Amino acid sequence: ANSIKNYITENTIIVCIGTDKCIGDCLGPMVGTFLTEKAFPLPVYGTIESPIHALNINKRLNEINKLHPKSLTIGIDACLGEYSSIGEIHTRDYPIHPGKGVGKNLPDVGIASIIGIIDSSENAEIFTSRS
């Protein structure tokens, strides 16, 4: 958590990645919705109502960058990882690589990131199916 504090300025924005169409990928929009409902003091993008996901990420990031050209972005996303890490929340001093765990090539998000490890990378195929 201390590493994320280093990135919080008046120019910081939060970008939450994912979709509620896939249960394993809904962490980002759930966090975005929670932060928005709690009147978080920084701009938050990516909610259940307005998600940022694989099909719209390029368009949405372009829109966000036009609105906040000098912003420092913190990305939030679900992540696959080691079995022993399931349920952990990690802060990282580097961007999110959305879709990497399920073989997608999408643009990196943020200069720092917060990820929630939702399952083992051995189960990646489960998270490519939609509900």
Description of the molecule:
By secondary structure, the protein is α/β, with parallel strands linked by helices. It has a single domain, classed as HybD-like (Rossmann fold), CATH 3.40.50.1450. The chain has 3 helices and 5 strands, in the order H-E-H-E-H-E-E-E. It has a 5-stranded mixed β-sheet, with helices on one face. Strand 1 (12-16), helix 2 and strand 2 form a beta-alpha-beta unit. It is globular and about 40 Å long. The termini are far apart.
CATH topology: Rossmann fold
Q: How many domain units?
A: 1
Distance between the termini: 33 Å
- Oligomerization status of the protein chains: single chain
Q: Going across the biggest sheet, name each strand in turn.
A: 2-1-3-5-4
The portion of residues forming beta strands comes to 15-25%
Rg over alpha carbons:
14 Å
- Looking at CATH, the homologous superfamily is HybD-like
Order of helix and strand elements from N to C terminus: HEHEHEEE
Which residues form runs of ≥5 with pLDDT under 50?
none
Structural class: alpha/beta
The largest pleated sheet is described as: 5 strands, mixed
CATH architecture label name? 3-Layer(aba) Sandwich
CATH class: Alpha Beta
So what's the overall shape?
A: globular
E-strand count: 5
Pfam family, one: DUF1256
InterPro entries: Pept_HybD-like_dom_sf, YyaC
Keywords: Hydrolase, Protease
Protein name: Spore protease YyaC
